[in-house]
Amino acid sequence: MNTIALTPTPKxxxxxxxxxxxxxxxxxxxxxxxxxxFFHHDALIGNDPLNFKTTSAFLFFTRWITHYCAPIFxxxxxxxxxxxxxxxxxKKQVAFxxxxxxxxxxxxxxxxxxxxxxFGYTRFLMLEVFWAIGMSMVCLSFLQFLPYxxxxxxxLLIVVGHNALDNIQVTQPVAASVAWSLVxxxxxxxxxxxxxxxxxxxxxxxxxxxxxxxxxGKLYAKNINPAYRKLFLLTTGxxxxxxxxxxxxxxxxxxxxxxxxxxxxxxxxLDFVNTTKYPPSLLYMLMTIGPALIVLAVTENIVNAFxxxxxxxxxVPFVYYMLHILVLHSLARIFMLISxxxxxxxxxxxxxxxxxxxxxxxxxxxxxxxAVVILYFPCKWYGNYRRNxxxxxxxxxx
Length: 398
What we know:
This is DUF1624 domain-containing protein. InterPro entries: HGSNAT_cat. By secondary structure, the chain is mainly α. It has one domain. The protein is built from 15 helices and three strands. Strands 1-3-2 form a three-stranded mixed sheet.
């Protein structure tokens, strides 16, 4: 007797494992920086981990390694958009998805992300990575209609040339200042008494990076030889790293923060790689994307226990981000109640810093690893749920 399936067979989707692996790695590393912000003593009293007068090499590295997260995530977001378009989507369908998802991410930044970071604190709005990704997607929804080579040229022009805008300052009128800040120059505004808006991620350089990631997606077309793709990624990654070293050595263009000789040779090396994130400079993007391309090349055919774990996070980045802030902020509150010390709220305007706020760096690492372990299980469940329910198209927005 033939049996009739009462539930639909899950629809399989073609995913590039190396992209999920790399994205998963940077998502895990990202949680380290946010754990530091909620728990480390120096973070809560306002010490910059990249300030050579107050930092240590280990603390510097703890912050610096997380520089790789945002640019790689934005870059791979562009690649994922290209791959989405290859699923028999028309340009108009891609444009609709990009525009609506971009608007959704901007709304999520304002309401959900700020709510999770602040737990109801309503006098401080931060526009950070989800705002930048969302606005870049809105722009890309129109730009993707352009010919491929022209689009690639625009992306490269923004990445290479946007530092030429560094010295432009717009202060009046206020509307023009805000507009310029949204595009290129980070700034803090106080439109009302006791209410502040921090524009930390101007979207223009991130748009250029997303466009370049989108154009890289062509390497993953079905007609591309995997051996050619691997060679191209390796070669391009090495060239980008070499360009970073050469341009950084010249010390004239590509970053508003020039390097200099420090009190020790180690700190001089650290200053050499201490590039500007707000907004991301050309050298910042070269420093991070070059190694990323190499990782994409070497992980394409690797399947082991480590990759099986990290892809769980790489496949659900939106949900992972929201959950990791919720978990870390909740743990910070619990630690504060148990110990009587201050928590991450000390970073926000209007909060007084407890004299014993925060913990040593080793505690940060223990909490970070514990949080990642906790997050593995809901992320795995959600990834399986989304894969097994392709009929719920709204899940593509999460």
